[in-house]
Inverse folding.
């Protein structure tokens, strides 16, 4: 079975889609919708949202390093700046590319809640890192690979948890269809 990239008249203008040649990609066993085809819009949104997260993580980390190492800012100030800078492309890429929203943004229905979620992640990750640092201090592990790994795990876990919550809220509330 070959897979081709084609264009579907039912999708957004000129958006490529993968087509299975020689099969009805809409049907599963017994003519019922197939698992993947019924989940395709969700899978596409998840993949795009993850791609946006990769881009914004690079923006955030680059800003954080430049602000702390290059400009000598305090780490917490640089972290707030990095989150602020990365939230701008995150909002626009998610709104347009992930959820296909066009036109003007609604300040109170879309922009403000999106920024609130971004800064909830900042607060949650800061609290998780602070708690982990306190625990490490109590264990007399102030530095080293284990301490650094624990701090990174705390931060990534906090942002990972928020990413799942944010995806659901963006999909079901902020950028919901209809």
């Amino acid at each position: 079975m070959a897979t081709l990239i084609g264009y579907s008249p039912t999708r957004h203008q000129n958006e490529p889609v993968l087509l299975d040649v020689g099969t009805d990609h809409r049907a599963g066993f017994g003519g019922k919708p197939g698992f993947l085809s019924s989940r395709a819009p969700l899978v596409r949104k998840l993949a795009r949202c993850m791609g946006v997260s990769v881009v914004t993580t690079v923006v955030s980390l680059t800003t954080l390093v430049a602000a702390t190492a290059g400009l000598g800012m305090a780490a917490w100030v640089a972290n707030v700046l990095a989150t602020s800078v990365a939230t701008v492309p995150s909002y626009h890429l998610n709104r347009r590319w992930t959820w296909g929203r066009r036109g003007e943004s609604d300040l109170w229905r879309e922009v403000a809640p999106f920024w609130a979620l971004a800064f909830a992640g900042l607060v949650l990750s800061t609290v998780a890192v602070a708690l982990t640092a306190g625990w490490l201090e109590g264990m007399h592990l102030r530095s080293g690979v284990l301490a650094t790994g624990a701090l990174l795990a705390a931060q990534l876990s906090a942002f990972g948890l928020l990413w799942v919550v944010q995806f659901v809220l963006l999909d079901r509330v902020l950028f919901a269809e209809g």
